[in-house]
Amino acid sequence: MAKRRVSLKDIAKELGVSISTVSRGLRDHPDISNELTAEIKALADLRNYSPNPMAMGLLQQRTKMIGVIVPDLVTHFFSSVILGIEAVAKEKGYFVLVSPSYESLEKEKENIKNLMKARVEGFIVCLSQETSDYSHFEQITESEIPLVFFDRVCLKDKVPSVVADSFEAARGITRHFYENQATRIAYISGPDHLNISDERRQGYLQGLSDCSLGYNPEYLEQCNLSPGSAAEATLRLLALPKPPDAIFGINDTVVFAAMKEIRKRGLNVPKDVMLAGFTDEFHATVVHPMLTSVMHPTREMGEIAAMLFFELIGNMETAPRSVELKTELVIRESSVRVEEKK
Amino acid sequence: MAKRRVSLKDIAKELGVSISTVSRGLRDHPDISNELTAEIKALADLRNYSPNPMAMGLLQQRTKMIGVIVPDLVTHFFSSVILGIEAVAKEKGYFVLVSPSYESLEKEKENIKNLMKARVEGFIVCLSQETSDYSHFEQITESEIPLVFFDRVCLKDKVPSVVADSFEAARGITRHFYENQATRIAYISGPDHLNISDERRQGYLQGLSDCSLGYNPEYLEQCNLSPGSAAEATLRLLALPKPPDAIFGINDTVVFAAMKEIRKRGLNVPKDVMLAGFTDEFHATVVHPMLTSVMHPTREMGEIAAMLFFELIGNMETAPRSVELKTELVIRESSVRVEEKK
DNA sequence: CTGAAAGCGCTAACAG
DNA sequence: CTGTTAGCGCTTTCAG
C-alpha cells in the first residue's frame, strides 16, 4: 500500500500550531500573520502537501469530475474533441472520466450509471448511433445534473450542444462534385434518428437542387457506420444500372470502406467514382488517392462543449445554448478529375 | 446545481432507525433481522441509493481510481489497450483516468502530478517517446505506489510490465522479406532509449544473420515516430545508391508515411519496395496495397496490465512480473511479390 | 491573531 | 438485535 500522504494535521503538528491555522495560512487568510503564513507554505511545499480531494469533495459535495461519453476512442475526431474538453477542464481544476459507448445504447446507459455512482458533476456526451430513445438523458436533466451534447445531439430545447454545420457542408460537397463534372451523386447516410444523418441528407438534397440535379432515391444509401455495412451500401450503389460517379459518406470511416470496395471492383477513384468524406481523419492523407474531406474544428468543438458545461455548472437556469461551428472542405485527389497519368 | 443525492441518513430517517442500522442492513450484517434488512434494501433501491464514493474514499483511503498514461489516444493500439484495462478495472469496481502524454516527457510528468493530486491508487503507463530519464517513475515506486508499464517500459527490475515479443516479431518480418526475394532490407527504428526500438532492431539484425544477409548500417534508419520524421528517414533510404527493396518500421504510422513517400517518388509497393508495419492498425487494410503488419494482442495486453496492477495493489512485496505476449505476422499485399496485373 | 468544535457520508468498535 | 461514538481530512463558524 502507498504511504499515507501528508495531511494538514501532520503539518500542524510539525509546526506546533492548530490544523485550522494551517488551513488558513495555506489560503492566505488575513487573520494569519505574514511570517506564519510563509512558514506554513514553505513546509507544505517541502512535504509536498496537496489537499485530499475526497475530503474536499465530501465537504463541498463536488467531485470536480466530468463524465465524457463518446461512441469511440479510436478516431481523430473523438480523441481531438476529448483533448479540447480536457484542456478547458484542467484550467478549471476538473478531471475528465472518458467512457466509450462503442456505439451501443446499452453501454451508454451503463456508463451513465457508473459515472453517476462515481458522482461526476455532469456529462458531456456524443450519442451512440443506436440511441433513439432519450429517456436516460431526460432523467439527467430532470435531476438538474449538467449535460452538454456535441456532434450527435438530441433534446435540443433542453440541452446545450455544439455541432458542425452539417447542412452547409453536405451541400458544399454536392456542389463541389457537380463542379467537377459529376452528375450522379450519391450519399451514404447513417441511422435516420441521428441529427448528423438527417442534416447532411438535407444538405445533400439542397445541393442537388442548387445544381439542378434531380433527386434519385437510389443514390441515397444508408449504413450503420460500421465499415462492413458501409461496404454493403457501396456495393448496392455500384450494382445500380447507372451507378453513381461520385459518392460521399457521413464520415471518413464509411468512405474508406467505400474506397476499398470500389477498388476491389477494379474501378478507379476519382476517374470512375469520385469520393469525399466527412470529419477529415488523419488517414485521409494516407490512402491513395488522398481523400477529399470536410474538416471539423474538433478541438474547438471540445473546448466549446466544456465551456457550455461550465456555464451550466455556474447557473442551471440559463436557456440552453446551441453552438454551430463552421467546417471547411479540404479538396484532395479523390474528388478532382485529372488527366490520366502518363 | 444537482440535487443532493440520498444518503444513509435520509433512509434512516424515513425508516425511523439509526444510520448504522441502515448501513449494516445494506451489507447483510448478521446482526440485523431479515425483515428489516429487506425493508432497508427495498427503500434504498426505491430511492436508488448508492454510497458516496468520497465518503468511502475518505474512510478507507482509497479512490478506486487508476491513472493511465498513454502517448496517444488516436491509434487502435492504445485505444484497444485502454479497453482491456477498463474491462478488468470495472470488474474490480475501479475507474480509469486516462491522460495522454502526447509523446512529451513534460506532459507525462504533469499528468502524473495531476493524477497524484486526484489520489489515483496507482498507474498503468506506456512511456512517451521522449522519456529517457526515469526519475519520476522511481519516485512513484519509492512511495510504494503501484505502477505497471506496458509496451514501452523501463526499470525492469522494479516495475512489472507487459510487452510484445518485439525481437521475434522483427526477426520474423526480416525473414519473411527474405523469403519474398528481398535482399536489401531496411528498418526504420525509433528513439534508441525505447525498449521497443532496441528489441526490434536486435530482431532485425538476428533476422539478417538468419538469412545470411550482411548488415548494412545504411539500411538502419531512425525517426522520432512522427509521420514527418518517418518521411525523412524514408527519403534518406530511397536516396541511397542501392536503395532497399524492403522496409519495415517500428510501427504502422511510420510505415504509412513511408508508403506515401515511396508513392510520391513514383515507385511501386511491393514491386519496387516491399513494406511491413508493426501493431496492425485498422487502416492497414484501408491503404492500397494493404499493409502487411505484426498484429499485437492489444486488448489482452491491457487486461494483463490491469491484472498485474491488481496483483500489486494486493501485495506490494512480490517481485515484479514481466509478461511477454506473442504477436502474429499478418501477411497482406505490401510484402508479397506478385505478377504485374494484367 | 489563533484554537476548538461541528459536520460533509460512511464504517467499525463499543455499548446497551 | 440496534444505537452511539469516533474518526477519515478539510473548512467554517464560533470563541477566545
Can you summarize this structure?
Chain A is α/β, with parallel strands linked by helices and 342 residues long. The first copy, chain A, contains twelve helices and twelve strands.
Task: Note down, in words, how this protein is organized.
With 342 residues, chain A is α/β, with parallel strands linked by helices. Chain A has three domains: 44 residues, no CATH class; 134 residues, Response regulator (Rossmann fold, 3-Layer(aba) Sandwich), CATH 3.40.50.2300; 139 residues, Response regulator (Rossmann fold, 3-Layer(aba) Sandwich), CATH 3.40.50. Chain A is built from twelve helices and twelve strands. In chain A, strands 2-1-3-4-5-11 form a six-stranded parallel beta sheet, with helices on both faces. A six-stranded mixed beta sheet of chain A has the order 7-6-8-9-10-12, sandwiched between helices. In chain A, β6, α9 and β7 form a beta-alpha-beta unit. The longest helix of chain A is centred in the C-terminal third of the chain and has 17 residues. Chain A is elongated. Chain A binds a DNA duplex (16 and 16 nucleotides) through α2 and α4.
Return residue spans of chain A where pLDDT drops below 50 for at least 5 consecutive residues: none
Biggest interface, chains and residues, is: A-B, 54 and 53 residues
Q: Output the number of helix runs of chain A.
A: 12
List the domain count of chain A as a whole number.
Answer: 3
Helix and strand pattern of chain A? HHHHEHEHEHEEHEHEHEHEEHEE
Return the CATH architecture of the largest domain in chain A. 3-Layer(aba) Sandwich
Molecular shape of chain A: elongated
- Record the strand order, biggest sheet of chain A: 2-1-3-4-5-11
Helix share bin of chain A: 40-55%
Structural class of chain A: alpha/beta
Gyration radius of chain A (Cα, Å) is 26 Å
| Oligomer type | homodimer
CATH topology of the largest domain in chain A: Rossmann fold
CATH superfamily of the largest domain in chain A: Response regulator
What is the CATH level 1 assignment of the largest domain in chain A? Alpha Beta
Number of strands of chain A: 12
What does the largest sheet of chain A look like?
6 strands, parallel
